[in-house]
Amino acid sequence: MKPARWACCSAPGAAAFARDAVRAVVRVAAAVLAAGGAALAMAAAADVGDGVIELRRAQLLVQDTMTPPPEHAAWQPVELPGWRNATTWYRLDFDTARATEATRGSWGVYLPYFYGGGRLLVNGEPIALIPEIGSGHRVRWERPQLVVIPDALLREGRNTLHVRAAIAHLPSGARLPRVTVGPLAELQPMHDRRLFWVRTMPQVTVACCAVVGLFVLAIWLRRRDEVLYGLFGLAALLWGVRTLTFVVELLPESWWPYWRVLYHGATGGFIIVMTIFSLRMGGWVRPWLERALVGYALLGPLAYLVSGGNEQLIGRWWIAGTIPIGLGMVAISVAAAWRRRDAATVALMLGIGIATASGIHDYMLAWGSPWLRAVAPEWSGHRFFLLHYGADLLLLVMGAVLTARFIQTLGALEDLNRTLESRVAQRERELEQNYARVAALQRENAAADERQRIMRDLHDGLGSRLFTSLSRVERGELDRTAVAQSLRECIADMRLALEAMAPDGHDFLVAWGNFRFRWQNELDAAGIASQWQVDAPDDASDDAIALPPHCGLQLLRIAQEALTNTLKHAQAQHVLVRLAARDDTLVMEIVDDGRGLPDEVPAGGRGLDNMRSRAQRLGATLTMQSSRHGTQLRLELPLGSPAAPADTTAASAVAAA
Amino acid sequence: MSVSVLIVEDGPEFMRRFSDAVLADAGLSLAGAVSTVAAARAMLDATRPDVMLLDLGLPDGDGVEVIRHAARHHPQCDVLVVTMFGDDGHVLSSIEAGATGYLLKDAMPERIAAAIHEVHAGGSPISPGIARRVLQRFRVAPEPAAATRAAPPAAPDASPLTERETDILRLVAKGLSFETVGQVLGISPHTVVTHVKRIYRKLAVHSRGEAVYEAGQMGLL
């Protein structure tokens, strides 16, 4: 049942279902316990089935012999259940005449408990021999005994049953319950019922506690902050160990002290762990109190070892000390339930209350409380120890409460995830907006940079050219043709700028194509044969030469200046214009076969200086060779030059816009 | 038989310049010189000129409307768009509207007359920038190294351009003159000019087809 509960909570999606399931489990558990109580009560009832004889009186004789004392010995009459502090013989008489014909058949003797073992004889003949303490082992029979009486032994009328009740260490002394004699068919169910409650249940409890305890402790080991899980796992394990001491009925003599230490440690430990659990569950963390409680828990087993196994001291007095602790735990749980007022703490309070009450009941039963015997003589005669069931119920409640918490946590986690997701989404949106803002800003900056360049260019290029022309026209230095020529140069310069700044991207070859188209016509018109070569990388992408527009413009200006010189002054026949982009270097060569540069720079011919300063600004090297057989201009521009990348990014930001 | 020319230009200086160029050429006759869209339409219908010189920015509307009018009602009329720099977007949209050439505003008078004769004779000028735009318009990769690489795989929507036309556009886009293009391709410059004119027609048809398709998409047809 418990493992199944834990298994179902591992599916977080079924949170609501699991919550209902936990409630159902609690209800079922309560019902089972109520039914169990009823069954126990039924088993305790004196008046049982047809032809069944319950023997409430016997004769006893304290005598440690293997054969029953003779008839004439000093037998004493006694009411059952009987108890003597030494191995005792009991003699019980019963009359089969009371049995009807119909119920005849196989008969048996049923002993609800027979802790120390011993012998049973019917009419002097042994019918059962149940191991007793001795020869290196100890016994502690929790199970009920059902012994078959061979038909041949049973006489019509009066029969005698001799029982040797051997002394046991726990519970101490030799005890004989009320003995039931009757047809097996009637006795078997009584025996089975008791067997289930006092033996099968503990076995199941041991298995469940081991599985659940280890499982929960494993969870706790991975999640140390979840102290409640750790406490619950520990409580389950301790309870399993304690119950195990009831399941093992026969063990070697030498193990006995350790066995008892284990028993006491587990019992005390369970109570203490439960107390700490209920404190923590109520939200009280009191380290000193917890340490004191743990100290008390350790005190019992230690004292047992030190005192050489003083059962009286530990079993009676130390265990008694746990009763106020248990009551304190009840008080704590009541306070917690009052404070929290939720189903979990109320259920825990009820569980702790029931467990504590059954613990007190067991304590009184174990030590033969006269008060209990007076209040419930029949019940106490059956010696049902209730803590087994009370503690099981408590563990069940704890498990249910923790499971509910676990499921709640999962639900909270899911909520949290949803909140987080929406927050992340919101953050993403904000980031996107930020990014867009930054990008817009970058674009604006880039655009501003570009505008600045264009303005500077207009100012230095077209502007200064126009102003020079204007002043020369005003001084009357220029005739009509010269003015037209000057204006044409201005237009050509503007055209160049437009070509370079065309929105076709950064492919210098596009601008170069337009430049070539225009200049070839001009050179043709002037009768200069031009040869154009483009030697660009032949890679897969494109034979593009990526250059920021203003770089391209400067290159075109230099080329235009050089070609203008060729056209105007060189008196050349041929011109070779070569553009090559190899190994990250752009080379532009303009070679003519004219008369070369004049020795002195002509008036107004600042062209050469202009070309040099432009090349310098680009980070390019310009070499000029001039002779009487022609002029050769060579410009080398490293494509990865420091000036270019910064400009390229700015330009690409513009392009991205 | 002289070529009759209609001039549509709102700037008086340039109208005079163009008129002078036409009048100075014995092979040309001036059909009219107007400065508005409305007048241009009226004169087109009235005089049915052989060639129209058209500036796009007119006071009462867009010169492209005049081109459309001419293309629809007077397909025999060649339209030369007057442009400042020759490769702007206006030229392309004019060609798509049905213009068959363009003329630079600062062209020398003899160049103006020559251009009119050329366009009437069936030729069309084209600058590298426009060639590039045309290639983009037909979604043809603009710059494969034609010599070293195999012909590009046919685009899914097959370009209406022939291989020869595409080659011409690519070479022109590189800045080669018609003469050089002719040398490279082993054809006469005149043939190059004819090809370019055909490319212009295709562009106009292509854009009209697209317009029809898009109008259909928008539910106008």
Walk me through the structure.
The complex is a heterodimer of chains A (657) and B (221). Chain A has 657 residues and is an alpha+beta fold. Chain A has helices at residues 2-8, 15-44, 184-222, 227-247, 256-281, 287-306, 311-340, 343-366, 370-375, 377-382, 387-474, 480-500, 508-525, 549-570, 607-618, 643-656, and strands at 53-55, 57-62, 76-79, 82-84, 88-95, 107-111, 118-122, 125-130, 137-139, 145-149, 158-165, 168-169, 172-176, 179-183, 250-252, 529-535, 574-582, 585-592, 621-627, 630-638. The two termini of chain A are 67 Å apart. With 221 residues, chain B is α/β, with parallel strands linked by helices. Chain B folds into two domains: 3-120, Response regulator (Rossmann fold); 128-218, Arc Repressor Mutant, subunit A. In chain B, 52% of the residues lie in helices and 14% in strands. The N and C termini of chain B lie far apart (43 Å). Residues 141-156 of chain B have low confidence and may be disordered. Classes of the chains: A alpha+beta (657), B alpha/beta (221). Chains A and B meet through α12 and α13 of A and α6 of B.
